[in-house]
Specification:
Elements: E1 5-9, H1 13-25, E2 29-33, H2 36-45, E3 50-54, H3 62-71, E4 80-84, H4 89-94, E5 102-106, H5 111-128
Parallel strand pairs: 1-2, 1-3, 3-4, 4-5
C-alpha cells in the first residue's frame, strides 16, 4: 500500500500549515487548497484518498464544496472530515460513533482523535477497494 494523499482545504494559512506539517510527519502526502474553487479544481485532477475541509472558506461554505465533490464521479467517493469553528464540542460528542463517509470535528480539535479518524477512514477505504 503506497503513501496516502490527503487534501487540506482551509482559507487560514496557519491552520493549513499546522495540519500539513503534522500529517506529513505521519507519512501522508499532502496537497493544500486555500478556497473551495481551488480545491474543486485540484480534486478533479489529483488522486486523493481523503479530504480535510474547513466549514467556512473565503469563497463558499465547506458544505457546498462537499456537495460539488459528491456530484462529480471522479471525486464522489473521497471521504471528508470537516473542521468547524461553528460546531460546539457537545455537538461533536453527540455525533461520536456515527461513522459515515463524513465526520465533523469542532475547532479547536483534538489532533490525536483526528489522526485516529483519518486512519479509520483510510482503512475502510482500503477494505472497499
Amino acid at each position: 500500500m503506497g503513501k496516502k494523499t490527503i487534501m487540506i482545504i482551509d482559507d487560514d494559512m496557519d491552520n493549513r500549515l499546522v495540519l500539513e506539517k503534522r500529517l506529513a510527519a505521519e507519512g501522508y502526502s499532502i496537497i493544500t487548497a486555500y478556497n473551495g474553487n481551488n480545491a474543486l479544481s485540484i480534486a478533479r485532477y489529483k488522486r486523493l484518498d481523503l479530504i480535510i475541509l474547513d466549514s467556512v472558506l473565503g469563497d463558499m461554505l465547506g458544505e457546498e464544496v462537499a456537495a460539488r465533490l459528491r456530484e462529480d464521479a471522479k471525486t464522489n467517493n473521497i471521504p471528508i472530515i470537516f473542521l468547524s469553528a461553528l460546531l460546539s464540542k457537545e455537538d461533536e460528542v453527540e455525533k461520536e460513533g456515527v461513522f459515515t463517509e463524513e465526520k465533523v470535528f469542532a475547532k479547536p480539535y483534538d489532533m490525536e482523535k483526528l489522526l485516529t479518524t483519518i486512519e479509520k477512514f483510510l482503512f475502510v477505504l482500503a477494505v472497499k477497494t
